[in-house]
Amino acid sequence: MMRSPIGQPLARDAMAYVLAGGRGSRLAELTDNRAKPAVYFGGKTRIIDFALSNAINSGIRRIGVATQYKAHSLIRHMQRAWNFMRPERNESFDILPASQRISEMLWYEGTADAVFQNIDIIAVHGPKYMVILAGDHVYKMDYELMLQQHVNSGADVTVGCLVVPRMEATGFGVMHVDKDDRITAFVEKPADPPGIPGQEDMALASMGIYVFETEFLFEQLRRDADDPNSKRDFGGDIIPYIVKHGKAQAHRFTNSCIRAAEEIEEYWRDVGTVDAYFEANLDLTDTVPKLDMYDRDWPIWSDAVVAAPAKFVHDEEGRRGMAISSLISNDCIVSGSTARRSLLFTGVKMGSFSSVDEAVILPYCNIGRKARLSRVIIDSGVRIPEGLVVGEDPVLDGRRFRRTENGVCLITKPMIDRLGQ
């Protein structure tokens, strides 16, 4: 293992910087009041917890999070869940809202600008390496292994990448590489993505993860800030410039992906649409899930909510509290009702004779008696009226709620309020 001069892993000399300002508009009403990284996922976590947990589990002890769009929910979550970092242990956790520190007229103009505006704060911590992360993907990865490759290759930047079918890469930044995975071109969302040498039907898609030496990154950010034609974006400006004028190296996710014994694939998801979000959550209900949330060797840290255990009550025919192939969180009460292949987040209450099937129910929802719901996402705090039926009449569902192409209904409080008008 490559180590720093003082004998520690490279991660101890690194800072993780999470870009968490994105709205995630394709998640529709789920991001009306919260940024995409703050969206709930997997029964008890938020999406951003995956990038942050990867950093902690990789040994990185300095973390910065840049926020912008509707950041209150995200900031509150980080204050509650991530307040265990201690300066006396040479640890730090900085929440960095767009605060117009450089100019009173400007918020963060792009991903690169979100780092540039906080150069002075980063410099105080003195990291030798910067690991730039997107805060809105679900995956498990050891960044220490990526840092090792970066140092061993002598690259100016190392870009985390996925191997995907070539024509599925049109929505990504795509890397053209040589036989040694040195990046020779970096193109955003190409109509005809370049293939991988020896695997022409596959492409290397950017994960939005970059490793730099800190001083080199600062130089590039200052140069970019002086360019009036730049959009201040890593994928659009910084990386293509380095590809042209320096050495950019690709790091394949397969080389640092964390998999528990039962996980058969390299799991990475951009849960950026309602359907993708729904399917990724339901993945967790499988007998052998594609993503193992029970892996104690690589835990996904989150807010340790102080709440009572889940409770199942009533045991009579037609009124039996039970859950089948489901994840049930703390403070849930399944009262004479049934949950099948569903996720009940903290504090969900299900009334007697109700049922949910393939449902993602966010915190503190109340499911009324005799309600019957299938293929739904219910936003936090929603009270489902007694007897409501969703998932059986596509035309009616489409009039009342947001119904996706795959037949998933997203239900929010304003939609329920309109039912009574």
TrEMBL record:
Q: What is the catalytic activity of this protein?
A: alpha-D-glucose 1-phosphate + ATP + H(+) = ADP-alpha-D-glucose + diphosphate
Enzyme group, top EC level? transferase
What are the protein's UniProt keywords? ATP-binding, Carbohydrate metabolism, Glycogen biosynthesis, Glycogen metabolism, Nucleotide-binding, Nucleotidyltransferase, Transferase
State where alpha-D-glucose 1-phosphate binds: 108, 173, 188-189, 206
Record's keyword annotation contains Nucleotide-binding: yes
GO terms in the biological process aspect are:
glycogen biosynthetic process
Q: Which residues form the signal peptide?
A: none
* Tree of life domain: Bacteria
Q: Which Gene3D superfamilies match?
A: Hexapeptide repeat proteins, Spore Coat Polysaccharide Biosynthesis Protein SpsA, Chain A
Q: Which residues form the Glucose-1-phosphate adenylyltransferase/Bifunctional protein GlmU-like C-terminal hexapeptide domain?
A: 308-411
Q: Which GO terms describe its molecular function?
A: ATP binding; glucose-1-phosphate adenylyltransferase activity
Q: What is its EC number?
A: 2.7.7.27
Q: What is this protein called?
A: Glucose-1-phosphate adenylyltransferase
Q: Which organism is it from?
A: Novosphingobium pentaromativorans US6-1
Gene (name only): glgC
